[in-house]
Amino acid sequence: MPDYVLYRGYRLQGVWGVTMTELFDEYKSDQARKWLEHVKELGARIKLQKALVDAERELLDGLKGIEYDTMPKAHNVTDIADQIEKLQHSISDYSANLAEYIEARRDAVERLRRLERPEESTCLILRYVIGLQWIEVANEMSYTRDGVLKIRNRALVNTWDVMPPECKDPIPKAY
């Protein structure tokens, strides 16, 4: 007989010895982690998109010193105009995604600052908003890695109370 129960996609370990409060804390922690991971992923996507825009710019930047009279027919002004149009489209996409990320990041920082314990908000901001690794968070906060992970566990449960309602899954009904 397994020592866990699957409940609405959640693997609940040792259910028979666990209180409802512990199960609800696990649920809240999971919801908060998903929200914060989403903010972190937006940041990673922005960095990648910026790198792609910079690479496209660099390609076009190299076209300055070309003598177009001696250029082969395959590279004409229309090709360059097409490349410029593609770059403008990439910049437009980057700008729209950057605005979304800035808003999500600002909202996350504002909400995390509402946590009662400053070390909890600092821990989560450094990890999920700034993007530091756990060992870097520990060094920044002058804690051990294990100490920071304990703070994180408590902070994620408390974050559920301040996170946006639209990011929460509906609470399963008790039967």
Approximate strand percentage: under 5%
Q: What general outline do the C-alpha atoms trace?
A: elongated
Mean pLDDT across all amino acids:
84
Residue stretches low in confidence (pLDDT < 50, at least 5 long) are none
Give a quick account of the main beta sheet: strands, pairing sense, barrel closure: 2 strands, antiparallel
Summed up, the domain count is 1
How is the largest sheet built, in terms of strand order? 1-2
Assign a percent range to the helix content: 55-70%
Tell me about this structure.
Helices cover 65% and strands 5% of the residues. The chain is elongated, with a radius of gyration of 24 Å. The protein is mostly helical and 175 residues long. It has one domain (23-167). The protein is built from 5 helices and 2 strands, in the order ββααααα.
Write the topology of this structure:
Layout lengths: L3 E4 L2 E4 L6 H42 L15 H36 L5 H13 L3 H8 L3 H15 L16
Antiparallel strand pairs: 1-2
Helix pairs in contact: 1-2, 1-3, 1-5, 2-3, 3-4, 3-5, 4-5
Q: What tags apply to this protein structure?
A:
two-stranded antiparallel sheet, 5 helices, mainly alpha, 175 residues
Give the gist of this structure.
By secondary structure, the protein is mainly alpha-helical. It contains 5 helices and 2 strands.
